[in-house]
């Protein structure tokens, strides 16, 4: 009996052990199964991530390809020589054609300052209210897209469908603003004026020698001559320029139907009388501009007045008084060139390339040699420096000790001291008086240095 019980007990124990073993095996199998499932899920997630990344990379590659293709097409396309902007790009850049962005307005429309392609730009919006104006605009775009000259404003792009021209932006405004001291512009030194005249002549000669047809500007005036930050001049608004395929000889007076364009007192009298346009029609306006740069006077009656002054030897009385160091011999020679260019008849005006530019080049070289000597004397006088900061003053103020200091420096000193920074003697009072005479002298000196540096940047 006991042996049978013992056998039964062993069988039960064996069964229990097998059950425990089966359970452990099942648990291990389940653990391996769950681990395998997790590995599969991780692999699926990795594959999904890689797929998404591959899709994003392919999209970016396609985008870059399309952008590069667009640039290449713009550069190499035979039918397009300029960057084509959408009206949306122009609208965003000008902040919805905001009035605050307007920097000019002429007979053809408004000009807005903005930034396109991370580049400062000026957008000219032309009013295309007639089919004729649309045709003229398309012609202007075609002509301007081919012009590349250091003294002609560069066309960066256009939005032909909406009459928008995108030009390079020139920081220092127009020549007109300097001649008549508009917008607080300082007077230009004589040597900058000489150089501007030479540069405009070079730009004009380039337009007149354009191929296959010469270009006549027709609206040359100080307002259409712009200056960059180094006071290099560029001819702007070639919007009224026409391709002249049948230019009349200078010694022939002939009538050709033409719609008069230009600004009163700058229009060639012969062009105004006959409607005949010639290359030398621009030379008349150029002559007026020369005389204006010398006298700072309005154009009406200017030729007659300067001619009388030159004949009587009283030209110095007519010269712009804001310039005190005119080189008289060179200035009179320049005035005579201006008078020749502004002759009433085209045939009496000199040849721009052969007769005018060589003389202007010589005058500019003379000006450069003179300014080199002047630059050596442009060191600031010692009394321009603040005794405290040892820097040139911007707001000079006279203290009780009779010395002049930079305002912020002397105020900071007086907060902690009651003695003079120079004499070390006790100050009678803390009242300050603006030294306006010194401030004006420093301002004039800084202007001379700035203009002189502009010449250095250009001429080396």
From TrEMBL:
GO BP terms: protein ubiquitination
Protein kinase domain mapped to chain residues: 97-360
Catalyzed reactions: L-threonyl-[protein] + ATP = O-phospho-L-threonyl-[protein] + ADP + H(+); L-seryl-[protein] + ATP = O-phospho-L-seryl-[protein] + ADP + H(+); S-ubiquitinyl-[E2 ubiquitin-conjugating enzyme]-L-cysteine + [acceptor protein]-L-lysine = [E2 ubiquitin-conjugating enzyme]-L-cysteine + N(6)-ubiquitinyl-[acceptor protein]-L-lysine
GO molecular function: ATP binding; protein serine/threonine kinase activity; ubiquitin protein ligase activity
Keywords: ATP-binding, Kinase, Nucleotide-binding, Serine/threonine-protein kinase, Transferase, Ubl conjugation pathway
UniProt binding sites for ATP: 124
Keyword Chaperone: no
Function per UniProt: Functions as an E3 ubiquitin ligase.
Entry's family note: Belongs to the protein kinase superfamily.
Descriptive protein name: Uncharacterized protein
């Amino acid at each position: 009996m006991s042996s049978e019980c013992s056998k039964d007990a062993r069988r039960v124990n064996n069964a229990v052990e097998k059950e425990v073993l089966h359970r452990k095996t099942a648990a291990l199998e389940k653990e391996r199964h769950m681990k395998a499932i997790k590995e599969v899920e991780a692999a699926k997630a990795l594959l999904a991530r890689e797929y998404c990344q591959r899709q994003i990379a392919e999209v970016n590659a396609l985008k870059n390809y399309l952008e590069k293709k667009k640039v290449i097409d713009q550069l190499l396309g035979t039918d397009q020589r300029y960057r084509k902007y959408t009206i949306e790009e122009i609208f965003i850049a000008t902040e919805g054609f905001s009035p605050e962005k307007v920097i000019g307005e002429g007979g053809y429309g408004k000009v807005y300052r903005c930034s396109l392609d991370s580049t400062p730009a000026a957008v000219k919006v032309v009013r295309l209210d007639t089919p004729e104006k649309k045709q003229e605009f398309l012609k202007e775009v075609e002509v301007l897209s081919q012009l590349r000259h250091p003294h002609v404003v560069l066309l960066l792009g256009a939005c032909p469908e909406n009459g928008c021209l995108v030009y390079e932006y020139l920081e220092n405004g127009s020549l007109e603003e300097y001649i008549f001291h508009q917008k607080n512009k300082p007077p230009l030194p004589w040597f900058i004026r000489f150089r501007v005249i030479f540069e405009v002549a070079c730009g004009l000669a380039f337009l007149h020698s354009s191929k296959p047809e010469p270009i006549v500007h027709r609206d040359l005036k100080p307002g259409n001559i712009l200056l960059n930050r180094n006071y290099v001049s560029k001819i702007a608004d070639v919007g009224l320029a026409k391709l002249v395929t049948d230019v009349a000889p200078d010694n022939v007076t002939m009538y050709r139907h033409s719609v008069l364009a230009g600004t009163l007192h700058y229009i060639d009298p012969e062009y105004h009388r006959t409607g005949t346009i010639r290359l030398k029609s621009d030379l008349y306006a150029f002559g007026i501009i020369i005389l204006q740069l010398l006298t700072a006077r309005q154009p009406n009656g200017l030729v007659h007045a300067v001619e009388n002054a030159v004949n009587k030897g009283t030209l110095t009385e007519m010269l712009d008084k804001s310039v005190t160091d005119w080189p008289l011999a060179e200035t009179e020679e320049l005035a005579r060139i201006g008078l020749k260019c502004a002759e009433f008849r085209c045939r009496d005006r000199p040849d721009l390339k052969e007769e005018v530019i060589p003389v202007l080049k010589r005058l500019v070289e003379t000006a450069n040699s003179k300014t080199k000597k002047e630059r050596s004397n442009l060191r600031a006088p010692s009394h321009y420096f603040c005794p405290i900061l040892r820097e040139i003053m911007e707001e000079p103020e006279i203290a009780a000790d009779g010395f002049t200091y930079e305002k912020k420096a002397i105020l900071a000193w007086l907060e902690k001291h009651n003695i003079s920074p120079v004499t070390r003697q006790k100050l009678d009072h803390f009242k300050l008086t603006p030294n306006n005479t010194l401030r004006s002298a420093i301002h004039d000196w800084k202007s001379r240095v700035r203009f002189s540096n502009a010449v250095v940047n250009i001429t080396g």
